[in-house]
Amino acid sequence: MASPWMASPRAAWLMFFFVLGYAFLLRIFDLDARLNPDADLWLTRTTRFWGALERREWSKMWQSPHPGITYMWLCGLFQRGFGLEHTALSPELLRAAKLPVVLVSSVSCAAVFALLRRLFGPRLSGWALFASLVLSSEPFVVAHSRSLHLDMLVTSLGFLAVLTQITAIREYSYRWSAMSGALWAAAVFSKASAAMVAAGAMILYIANFVRDPRGARSRLVGCLLVAVLCAFVVAGALLPELLFDPKTVLERFFTGVTGLAEGGHRSFAWGKSYAKDPGPGLYAAAVLLRTSPEVLAGVITFVILSGVFAVFEARSGHSQQSSLPMRRIGWSCLVAYSMWGLTLLASSKKGARYFVTMLPMFCVVATAGIGSLWLALRSRLGSCDSIRSRISIVAFVVVCSFFCLRTIRIVAFHPLPLAWTARLPGLSPEETLVLGWGEGLREAALWIGADARRLDPESGGVVPAVHFPGYGKTMRPWLHFRSVSALRAEYVVDYLCNRQRRRDRHRPPAGASGTPLHRVHLNAIEYVTIYPGPAYRRARASR
Fold first, then answer.
1. Which residues lie closer than 8 Å to 338 by C-beta, 6 or more apart?
2. Are 330 and 169 in contact (CB under 8 A)?
3. Which whole-number Å values give the CA distances from 166 to 118, 198, 292, in the listed order?
4. How far apart are CA 377 and CA 458, in angstroms?
5. How does DSSP classify residue 350?
6. Are 472 and 499 in contact (CB under 8 A)?
7. How would you write 230-291 as a 3-class SS string?
8. pTM across the whole model
9. Residue 509: cis peptide before it, omega within 30 degrees of 0
């Protein structure tokens, strides 16, 4: 995957815009197809945030210990741009509120290409392109890129901060240090988890300070100071209160982070419901089921090859120069995310979606593994130009087929890629990991609305009575209904996530009995079951 043309600046720009367009097209369509349970919360906080900003009540801009500042800025700007800042929750508002996440995620995929090309070197531009396309088409990443939430913002901004910091350390660059500081501020003010990624990335500074010659250390310290200063400036611009009362802001921030990490919530893993902490095994399920098999295989290949190359280089005294840049960046990324990985395992609050922050790093490490294997095989299999040419043609066909299949996978589950899970022998996703974060509820809402109109065609404004504890608001953009108790309901909605989190997961919810009226299946898994409530049966009997 190396050629003079791919190493040229013109090719670099073409590849950059190709990645940007590819990532954007996988994310932009049907943004109103799903609403996650926390979306209404963030829309409400955005309204309060901008109200405080307009009144210059700086202390009231802080809305959450997450803290979500970056998202509230972007969401508010897009709401105002579309004239939707004071409207009720609707498909139009949902699309506008998701656009910032779509754009940040898409641009970050293209930026990852540009940064990896610089880090790998122009000679390995093809592998930088490969890594960015893998990231663009990773199903769980695409899914969260289409969610009205913070997870993809912190994932995208945090990973760009890691790569820019690695670039700054390698080049002793104040410019890249300033950029990494700005990205760290935006990432941490998106969600506090970025602070732990930043803590892991500090290990890279320490390691290089110890390893570097004495004359380069002062430059490295200068880079760190520039990054910290730029982070503080950007943080102050995002949250002006930090400039007037930094002590209060920092206390609020760390108190909130500690409370979130220690609070926990009911979760489900490996067939059991846990009141607080399901244990680190939850993330084993997340890695197996939420990572695409090819990325997981690439990560395993990287770890194995790193050991093989280490033994070979120790015995021969010669390093595998062709793949060395990729392997170094792969290990740098693993080190940078080490603290966040340990935090995930140790925290009482666990959830499979927190794992999405690790996936960009997994994509780069997998690329380093596959690329290292390819370069090693290529150097052994072909010594003349004709053989190398044939091998390159075969590789090109394989890579094109690989990305066609990944694209088909996303399109096949569009517009609900979050419902995707890897199919592994003997591992049932619904019996292993929490599923259901808004998936299937649009379909349920539209069906209930159509059925209510069918039963009462003479009434133009049918408002069905629905019993759906926990996730009722996620149907609001598509269905106007009355939320009632199970005894007064016409429709009782049973949701997969609710079933998983109850200890007796096979028992229907209160008020549900008889033959289900409708079921919603995604990826061959039953997400929603709609039962007739007592009021439904009475209404049908009266007719």
1. 200, 203
2. no
3. 11, 12, 26
4. 72
5. -
6. no
7. HHHHHHHHHCCHHHHCHHHHHHHHHHHHHHHHHHCCCEEECCEEECCCCCCHHHHHHHHHHC
8. 0.93
9. no
Q: Which residues, 6+ apart, have CB-to-CB distance to 485 below 8 Å?
A: 467, 511
287 pLDDT band, cuts 50/70/90, is very high
What is d(CA 362, CA 85) in angstroms, rounded to the nearest whole number? 37
Question: Residue 411: phi, psi to the nearest 5?
Answer: -65, -35
Residue type at position 401: S
Q: Do strands 482-483 and 491-495 pair parallel, antiparallel, or not at all (unpaired)?
A: unpaired
- Reference 449, options 470, 471, 478, 469; nearest CA is 478
Peptide bond into 67 cis (omega under 30): yes
Helix 174-188 × helix 194-211 angle, to 10°? 150
> Residue 89's CB: how many other CB atoms inside 10 A?
16
Percentage of the chain modeled with pLDDT above 90: 57
E-assigned strand segments in 368-475? 465-467
- Give just the sign of the alpha carbon dihedral 419, 425, 428, 429: negative
Nearest to 271 by CA among 425, 419, 492, 426: 426
Give the pLDDT of residue 498.
87
Say whether 433 sits in a helix, a strand or coil.
strand
3-state secondary structure of 476: coil
Give the CA angle between residues 136, 142, 144 to the nearest 5°.
135
Place of tokens 């949902």: 94
Tokens of residue 81, six digits: 């741009």
Task: Provide the phi-psi class of 466: left if phi over 0, else alpha when psi is between -120 and 50, else beta.
Answer: beta
The answer to whether residues 433 and 286 touch, using CB atoms and an 8 Å cutoff, is: yes
Closest CA to 325 of 494, 173, 30, 116: 116
From the CA atom positions of the chain, what is the Rg in Å? 25
Tokens of 129: 């392109």
Q: Average of pLDDT values for 464-489?
A: 90
> For residues 223 and 173, what is the distance between their CA atoms, to the nearest angstrom?
7
Please determine, for residue 25, whether its predicted confidence score (pLDDT) is greater than 90: yes
Give SS3 for 343.
helix
What span, in angstroms and rounded, lies between the C-alpha atoms of 391 and 323? 18
Two structure tokens written together for 417: 């890629």
Distance, CA of 175 to CA of 168 (rounded, Å): 8
Output the average pLDDT for the chain.
Answer: 88
Does residue 395 or residue 27 have the better pLDDT?
A: 27
**Which residue do the tokens 């380069």 mark?**
216
Q: Are 529 and 483 in contact (CB under 8 A)?
A: no
Distance of CA 129 to the CA centre of its chain: 20
